[in-house]
Amino acid sequence: MDSPASGPGPAPGTAPRNLIERVLGPATPGERLRTDVLFALTMAVSAVVVVRVVRDNGDPPDALGWALLLAAHITIVWRRRAPMRVMVVLMAILLTYHSLDANHTAPLAVSMAALFTVASRSRPRNTVLVGAGVIGIMLSVKFSEGMAEGAESLRITGWIISFLLLGVYVRIHRQYVSSVVERAERAERTREEEARRRVAEERLRVARDLHDLLAHSITLVGVQTSVAAHVLAADPDRLDRAAVAKALDDVAETCRTARGELRATLEVLRSGTEDEGGDEARGPLPGLGSLPDLADAARTSGARVELNVEPCQAPPAVGAAAYRIVQEALTNAVRHAGPGPTVRVDIRAGGAALNVTVADDGVGAAVGAGAPGYGLVGMRERARTVGGTLEAGPRPGGGFMVSAVLPLAPASLGGLT
Fold it and tell me: In what helix (H) or strand (E) does residue 375 lie, and over which residues does it extend?
């Protein structure tokens, strides 16, 4: 649990989103548009400065030249949305501009920006095609004007290749950062899902424990109080005080036992120490050694319990699952099997599994015919948590039987019940 001093943490996904915004640029379309407009405006201002400063590389632009230069800078506002289409339009504009023999240095910055965008935001094939097309057209035009112009174009070719390589590097780096952010988000989602799963499992475990505890205890208390009431009403003139006192003592003992188990179960919820103490925070688990107490409690309710437990070294989780299954089966027998049922509990270790069988000779067929309650569902869930199986249903000769097979191998255990 978080300590009060730690304060609330960042919202899920905030850290990866902040990282991608810092590295990959503005995240929203409005922010990207404002950035692109400011970039295009800066490029346009720099082109005007170049026209005023550089005089030896073409004539000053006329009205058409200025219009084409302005159109080129307006076009690059959409360079990140459609880099290839912007590049094609820009090439057409600049070819017309350069054919006027206007200042050839002025559009250099916008040209390199468009080439960089294609290399950083388009597929490698498009980068190669655009680079080859631009270099090919430039070399063809310049060498047709003379060797001196061709040699100058080779120097410009180096700049073109440099910007293309820089764009490729940025694209690869962006993909790497995106993959890192994606892995971080996936890991964060996995942690959240794991936390939710653990909370759900713990909630289900507490619900099963409370169901088993309360159902068993309330059933025994109900039967024991019925015995006391029967003794009081059967023959008031010859009151069997010893029988009444024993029934009430049994009720008190059942309540004390239930109160202790309930306190141990709720302590997990109250202290919130599951993450800190793990399974040890839950306290000692009931096991096979506590089965005689269950049998004695069922006997006080009028059932004849035959308990046969073979000594075996069962893991704590398996022992706890077996205990809870027997507890629920005895509760169902006392509740549904009729007066004075005989219940046989057999627990044997066979091979790599613990075989648990609880069978009664009462009217348990009625239980199997009706809709199953949470008791049978809970027993099956407890068997599954340790990798086992459970079957329950009416016996052919009458009564009801619960049979579970719980593996003893630690590798097959799914967790504590």
Answer: helix 374-385
Q: HEC string of 315-346?
A: CHHHHHHHHHHHHHHHHHHHHHCCCCCEEEEE
- What one-letter code names the amino acid at 355? N
Q: 3-class secondary structure for 44-99?
A: HHHHHHHHHHCCCCCECCCHHHHHHHHHHHHHHHHCCCCHHHHHHHHHHHHHHHHH
Backbone dihedral region for residue 285 (phi beyond 0: left; psi -120 to 50: alpha; all else: beta): beta
Q: 70: which 2 tokens? A: 């302005």
Please name the residue ranges forming H helices in 145-273: 147-234, 241-271
Which one, of 114, 122, 104, lies nearest residue 163 by Cα?
114
| pLDDT value at 298 more than 90 | no
Q: Which residue has the tokens 């490029």?
A: 43
CA atoms within a 13 Å half-sphere pointing along the CA-CB vector of 63: 0
Query: How large is the C-alpha radius of gyration of the chain?
Result: 41
Give the three-state DSSP class for 393: strand
| Of residues 275, 281, 282, 406, the one with CA closest to residue 349 | 406
pLDDT at 26: 55
Cβ proximity of 72 and 44 under 8 Å: no
> Residue 385's closest CA among 201, 191, 262?
201
What φ, ψ does residue 404 adopt, rounded to 5°? -130, 145
pTM over 0.90: no
Q: Is 291 exposed, middle or buried (0-12, 13-18, 19+ CB in 10 A)?
A: buried
Give the pairing type, strands 304-309 and 353-360: unpaired
Report pLDDT for 417. Answer: 43
d(CA 256, CA 263): 11
Higher-pLDDT residue of 321 and 222 is 321
Contact between 121 and 171 under an 8 Å Cβ cutoff? The reply is yes
What is the spatial distance between Cα 313 and Cα 388, in angstroms, rounded to a whole number?
Answer: 17
Beta-carbon contacts of residue 340 (< 8 Å; ≥ 6 apart): 302, 303, 304
- The 3-state DSSP class for residue 133 equals helix
Q: Per residue in 207-217, is it b (16+ CB within 10 Å) or e — as a string?
A: ebbebbbebbb
Angle at 71 between CA 69 and CA 76, to 5 degrees: 100
